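A reminder from the course coordinator: this example appears on the midterm review sheet, so study it carefully.

Given structure:
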């Protein structure tokens, strides 16, 4: 196993570092990149406010090229698809740090859990802050003001998995309500050079919005043994709402929020490999005729061991291509992810961008123990059934249904056992009539 890990680590550096070096030599002045992707340039890009709502938390999702709407198998679902909380195997608390472009950064604290008494119900929350240093100089080069431009977002999520059963895994629906605050430092008057009181708050803004989503999972072309479905499909609408500014005078509507409609799919045909694909369409709710170009992203994860994953992805957003790669590993219930992004929207100086995440896995509140008990009781019932001890088999399978009323094999087994009992009674009654 160590040899395999060392091999893929070496492979990572052999592939991505030379590829990056080639990119550096080929695109020294960025002109060839601009020319090549000019046809995908979005003329309406940047016309929305609170752009930090589109920045990923970092870590795992960036490693997959942000192709996550149809996967959402960890706490990052809070950013991509609010329906996936009800499908999480474990509760999680996570810290994210995303070193974005131009000295900007995004830090996030997130939490999610599923209810013990209602396993199909979950809730989650996160607090995220995007910040960028702000310094103003006058005509003489003297520093006048300094501070931070920031956008802070708090959110609460709830989701529920409807119609969950043994064969059909249910339809998960969810919603996230969010509130954001844009903070701008005070700035100086161009003529006097003096700081204008409340000039920052006059351009600061508040936003209120919601995300809605759905997700379903099923089996298709599955070439390995597992009760977990190998296909997930997700749809989401993000940042449905509005923003207001002008807090020193009259409140007015701010620029439209970066509303986004996304569809995604993830597939695992064989156990070590998971493929994901996302398609996203930006929307302007204040002017639906304003057209934004859609963008697409794809990702792949390869699981070398239960504690180690290699992830890679790529995407094109307008005229901005990006390539991603990262590792995720787990130690003592702490899951760490290190991601590197080669993003042609910033610079080609090595290294471009890094993001980190640390997730503490809080356990499944005994759901795996219950599942193991169900398997044990069901197998015991099968043994009694094979020995024609149908009453004992029924007793075992009724215990199964008390633990999980959706375990259809137990229901079918009870019906079959009762049919056998009824048939035996009919035979006995028939023999009595013949004797009489």
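Designed residues:
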């Amino acid at each position: 196993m160590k040899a395999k890990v060392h091999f893929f680590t070496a492979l990572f550096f052999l592939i991505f570092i030379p590829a990056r070096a080639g990119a550096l030599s080929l695109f020294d002045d960025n002109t060839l990149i601009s020319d090549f992707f000019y046809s995908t340039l979005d003329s309406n890009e940047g016309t929305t406010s609170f752009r930090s709502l589109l920045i990923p938390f970092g870590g795992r999702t960036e490693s997959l090229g942000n192709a996550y709407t149809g996967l959402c198998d960890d706490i990052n679902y809070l950013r991509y698809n609010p329906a996936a909380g009800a499908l999480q195997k474990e509760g999680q608390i996570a810290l994210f740090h995303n070193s974005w472009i131009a000295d900007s950064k995004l830090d996030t604290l997130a939490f999610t859990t599923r209810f013990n008494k209602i396993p199909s119900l979950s809730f989650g929350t996160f607090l995220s802050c995007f910040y960028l240093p702000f310094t103003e100089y006058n005509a003489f080069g003297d520093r006048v003001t300094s501070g931070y431009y920031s956008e802070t977002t708090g959110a609460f999520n709830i989701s529920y998995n409807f119609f969950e059963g043994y064969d059909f895994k249910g339809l998960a629906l969810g919603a996230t309500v969010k509130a954001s605050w844009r903070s701008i430092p005070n700035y100086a008057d161009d003529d006097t050079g003096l700081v204008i009181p409340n000039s920052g708050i006059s351009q600061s803004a508040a936003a209120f919005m919601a995300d809605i989503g759905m997700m379903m999972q099923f089996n298709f072309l599955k070439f390995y043994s597992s009760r977990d479905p190998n296909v997930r499909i997700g749809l989401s609408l993000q940042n449905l709402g509005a923003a207001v500014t002008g807090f020193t005078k009259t409140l007015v509507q701010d620029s439209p929020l970066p509303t986004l409609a996304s569809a995604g799919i993830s597939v695992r045909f064989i156990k070590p490999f998971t493929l994901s694909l996302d398609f996203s369409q930006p929307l302007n709710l204040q002017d639906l005729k304003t057209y934004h170009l859609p963008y697409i992203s794809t990702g792949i994860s390869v699981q070398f061991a239960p504690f180690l994953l290699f992830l890679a992805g790529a995407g094109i957003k307008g005229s901005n291509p990006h390539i991603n790669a990262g590792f995720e590993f787990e130690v003592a219930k702490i899951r760490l992810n290190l991601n590197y992004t080669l993003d042609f929207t910033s610079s080609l100086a090595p290294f471009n961008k890094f993001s980190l995440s640390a997730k503490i896995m809080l356990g499944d509140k005994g759901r795996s123990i219950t599942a193991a008990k169900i398997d044990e009781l069901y197998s015991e019932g099968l043994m009694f059934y094979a020995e024609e001890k149908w009453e004992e088999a029924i007793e075992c399978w009724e215990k199964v249904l008390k633990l999980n009323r959706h375990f259809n094999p137990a229901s079918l087994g009870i019906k079959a056992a009762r049919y056998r009992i009824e048939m035996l009674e009919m035979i006995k009654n028939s023999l009595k009539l013949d004797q009489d």
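The chain has a mean pLDDT of 85. Helices lie at 2-26, 31-36, 60-63, 77-80, 199-203, 367-386, 390-403, 408-435.
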